[in-house]
TrEMBL record:
PROSITE patterns: ADH_SHORT (PS00061). Keywords: Signal. Gene3D superfamilies: NAD(P)-binding Rossmann-like Domain. GO terms for cellular component: membrane. This is Dehydrogenase/reductase SDR family member 7 isoform X1. Residues 44-258 form the Ketoreductase domain. Residues 1-24 form the signal peptide. SUPFAM superfamilies: NAD(P)-binding Rossmann-fold domains (SSF51735).
Length: 351
């Protein structure tokens, strides 16, 4: 009798676990943290790049509502001013600092930006540096802030229109992607981290991508840049954690954003892809940072399942990606769903 009861209890617990996994918006550790620890955000100085649109804009609005002191950066100064004027919160909008910044402008310009950011709030340096700006340009000539993973920058936000094969990307695109996503981000960190070390605390929040954890057919160079970021910041944390430096690496999958003409244009073509909202992505990012989680995955299915497979069962995970890789690039060319399970069978439709 006890064996039968144990069987059915175990069975229902397994069903519950599978249901939670199927409906989750992130990895199990992240999902266990239900709320933002407001005391970790309120009155803290938060500097965020890529803040003029997309995920960056949503992050800024949520952080303002939590009482953070904000420094917002992007290349688009007019966009930053628009975002600032739309904010409300303990220090918003009047005390929000606008700091135009181009991550590819070179170390001297980045050093000036760090000095300016550190001086904005007397007696308080930067507590959180949110690296949100990113670039992906396999076929586009536009600079695009991370709406995370272009992919969330996932850049799969722009899904189909920006995908190209690994052999088709130009040298210019490769250099530009790495200048912004890797070299600029790392340089800004190298210049800011010593100030944090002097104070004995500081937290880097890195908007990476699921493309930095798994293969990303059609986004090889972007994926390479995010793998590089993951390697650098996990190493940085290991070196400096005992000195008070914290790092949270955020790996979002496909995210829906209501801003940006590219996304709107894709929507008009009738593409139907399941994407997490930018608001939910930003909320989970802030939860992860406030709980000092080291790495989090933000996505709905099937991308989340693929990330688990690649992480814990790599032979199966990479086999799966090999099966869909070519079909995914072809689906993108047809303006089809690049996240459909039908990619396994090469039957992705154009609508």
């Amino acid at each position: 009798m006890l064996a039968v009861v144990f069987f059915w209890v175990s069975f229902f617990l397994l069903l519950l676990l599978l249901f939670k996994f199927a409906t989750a918006h992130g990895d199990f550790t992240l999902m266990s943290k239900k709320h933002v620890k407001r005391e970790e955000i309120e009155d803290k100085v938060v500097w965020i790049t890529g803040a003029s649109r997309g995920i960056g804009e949503v992050l800024v609005k949520q952080l303002a509502g939590l009482g953070a002191k904000l420094i917002i950066s992007a290349r688009d100064e007019a966009g930053l001013e628009r975002v600032k004027n739309e904010l409300s919160g303990k220090f918003a909008p009047n005390e929000v600092k606008v700091l135009p910044l181009d991550l590819s402008s070179g170390e001297n310009k980045l050093k000036e930006a760090v000095e300016m950011a550190e001086s904005f709030f007397p007696g308080s340096g930067v507590d959180y540096m949110i690296h949100n700006a990113a670039f992906e340009r396999p076929t586009s000539n536009h600079y695009i802030p991370a709406l995370s993973t272009l992919k969330c920058v996932s850049n799969e936000i722009f899904g189909n229109s920006l995908k190209s094969t690994a052999l088709d990307v130009s040298e210019e695109s490769m250099k530009t992607t790495f200048d912004v996503n890797v070299l600029g981000t790392i340089s800004l960190t190298r210049l800011l981290a010593p100030r944090m070390l002097q104070r004995g605390h500081g937290h880097f929040v890195v908007m990476s991508s699921a493309a930095g954890k798994t293969p990303a057919p059609g986004q090889a160079v972007y994926s390479a840049s995010k793998h590089a970021l993951n390697g650098y910041f996990h190493s940085l944390r290991s070196e400096l954690y005992h000195k008070g430096i914290r790092v949270t690496v955020v790996c979002p999958g496909p995210i829906e954003t209501s801003t940006g003409s590219v996304v709107e244009a894709i929507g008009k073509k009738g593409i139907s892809e399941k994407r997490l909202s930018s608001e939910r992505c930003a909320e989970l990012t802030i939860i992860a940072a406030s709980h000092n989680l080291k790495e989090v995955w933000i996505s709905s299915q099937p991308v989340l399942a693929v990330m688990y497979l690649v992480q814990y069962m790599p032979t199966i995970g990479y086999w799966l990606m090999d099966k869909i890789g070519g079909n995914r690039v072809e689906a993108a060319a047809r303006k089809g769903n690049t996240y459909s399970l039908s990619l396994l069978f090469g039957k992705n439709k154009s609508s």
